[in-house]
Amino acid sequence: MTLVPAALKRRTRAETAIDAAFAAVRADLPGAGRSEAFARFATDGLPHRRIEAYHFTDLHTLVTAAPEPARRPSPEVARATALAAGVDAFAAAGAARFVLVDGWFCPDLSDLAGLGDGVSVSSVGAGLLGGRQLAGRGLDGLGERLADGGAAADPLVALACAFYTDGVVLRVAPGTRMARPLEIRHLASGASVSAHVRHLIVVGDGGAAEVLETHASPDGVEIHAHGLTEATIGAGATLSLVDRQCEGDQAMRFSTLAVAVADDAVLDHTVVTLGARLARTQVFARLGARTQLTSRGATLVRGRAHADATLVVDHVGEDAVSRELYKSAVDDEARSVFQGRIRVDPVAQGTDGRMGAHAVLLSDRAEAMAKPELEIFADDVACAHGATVGALDDALKFYLMSRGIPAAETEKLLIRAFLGEVTDAVASEPVRAVIEADVEAWIDGRERSA
Amino acid sequence: MLEITNLHAEIESEGREILRGLDLVVKPGEIHAIMGPNGAGKSTLSHVLAGKPGYLVTEGTATLDGVDLLGLDPAARAAAGVFLAFQYPVEIPGVGNVTFLKAALNAQRRARGEGEISTPDFMRLLRGAAGRLEISQDMLKRPVNVGFSGGEKKRNEILQMAILQPKLCILDETDSGLDIDALKVVAEGVNGLRSPDRAFVVITHYQRLLDHIVPDFVHVLAKGRIVKSGGPELALELEAKGYADFAEEAA
């Protein structure tokens, strides 16, 4: 079978490696649709700046290699990885824990007890194996979300669908509230590998779920971590999703959330981006009638890191409220990118959408790009967007210093205050404490490197 | 306490000289009023003493108890005892008023080699000072100056002064934008801080403030220099005649 269209010429080194990797692992990976997904990727390869959605994040140039797909870690490696990763920050939130190492579920490191009746957690890996015998019942619904909002056409989504090995399947029965949050903890063994994970979250009508995701990897190792989460939030249900990205300084992380929010449902989404040399977080959200979406992001980048948050919010029902607020603190020669598109369908009268993207540049060579867009096809809507990029305000610095607060501490106060609008809005106290500590540690790290 | 000798300063970006050989000596316990027409350099003087960026001192000295202020950054000047009550206090979203006051007080104490204040002691100090200035709990909880009225901002400046206990207080047109009731509250706050070890430089365009904060000396600043000094009666004279004479004298 020819996996790569013959017409393709001039593949980059990374693309050639990805092609070879797929050819090598294809036969070992169960599950349908992989070749079709890979073909969608392979046709155009890594997206470049002339593809509008990737104009500011040219993967064709930024991705120069493609480490081999990770193999399932041995129990010894998994244990050593967990030990090296240290204390789980979300432990204080009382969360159950689903641990993956290099993209593979490690049951021995996980604790899935006490989530309550009506809540089921299983692994995608088990579902894939089961699929050979049971026609994939455990993975019912996987792939359904990708038709929404153009997710299926995205090359990163295509890669995740071609290569995925494992992930979480979380199902919350109608009317059921999870007894404790579920943490999905992604760890990396330290080998330079590519990991591909795919999660499925289904919250039944009137249910409530809370998922906390942490991505961690050691500094100095180029890993490529791909993640795709497909979530369906039933009518009147609530999903709270926190994505905390603390990858190492050479990591590349690509995360996509494709979510459908049914009528009267609520999605509360928080993304904190603290690490990775290259990070792209994508959200494709489809909002039904009277839904509420809050998506907030705090991006803290330094060195030569490049962090991109790209949202596509599709209002397809009446009277939905969406609030997106993304703030970046950009130091050294780092770059932050925000792209947000709110689309309002002709039937989505009464839509109330507000999107803000704000960046503070902490060095002369830092860069921030913001591209908020509104596409409105209904006539009775209230939509607004705003974007700002600038340095810390000199007048504020002088005011604080004139009261005796030294320059370094003044900057710290102002950075914390700038990001506070995002972090303060996280409702769960223990989760907020973790994120505030992350921000604090990043700011302290800035002083040390100065 | 404060000694300013032959101070020349210009706006850095324009190279325009604003202060042109200003001399002033302020002793502990004294209140000096500096009056003068618009553009005389009153606010520039306050900014240069507090260390606001954007000004270039080309000649002269300014010392506080022998410490060369001009060589210090604004935070070090504050720790040395300088306090500027701003004409236009800025709003700082995301920084709580109490957090800010405590951070400022402790930063100054650390810089002076003193220990940090305990939270109960700080809260006692804060409650006392806030009460005297009619500053509500709500104002203390809010971010610094955010959503404050003009009068509330000025009272908040005096509150900071009361907490930080500076040696030298510079009030830059603290009366601007205040109605008579707010002016009285602010003036009482300032008068409550008068002490034999503390000096005030009160910059104002109008005599009105000086009915409430009675100065020991009044100076007329025109074209970047002190052109006349006297007692409180000088303020009344200025109120009656205006600044026209001095503008010409200095020219």
TrEMBL record, chain A:
Protein family membership: Belongs to the iron-sulfur cluster assembly SufBD family.
Provenance organism: Siculibacillus lacustris
Ranges of residues in domain SUF system FeS cluster assembly SufBD core: 189-418
One Pfam family recorded for the sequence: SufBD_N
GO biological process: iron-sulfur cluster assembly
Family matches, as InterPro entries: Fe-S_cluster_assembly_SufBD, SUF_FeS_clus_asmbl_SufBD_core, SUF_FeS_clus_asmbl_SufBD_sf, SUF_FeS_clus_asmbl_SufD, SufBD_N
Annotated ranges, domain SUF system FeS cluster assembly SufBD N-terminal: 32-184
Name by which UniProt lists this protein: Fe-S cluster assembly protein SufD
UniProtKB/TrEMBL annotation, chain B:
InterPro entries: AAA+_ATPase, ABC_transporter-like_ATP-bd, ABC_transporter-like_CS, FeS-cluster_ATPase_SufC, P-loop_NTPase
Domain of life: Bacteria
One family name in Pfam for this protein: ABC_tran
Domain ABC transporter: residue ranges: 2-248
Keywords associated with the record: ATP-binding, Nucleotide-binding
SMART domains hit by this protein: AAA
GO molecular function per UniProt: ATP binding; ATP hydrolysis activity
Keyword ATP-binding: yes
NCBIfam families reported in the protein's UniProt record: sufC
Family of this protein: Belongs to the ABC transporter superfamily. Ycf16 family.
PANTHER family: ABC TRANSPORTER I FAMILY MEMBER 6, CHLOROPLASTIC (PTHR43204:SF1)
The protein's name in its UniProt record: Fe-S cluster assembly ATPase SufC
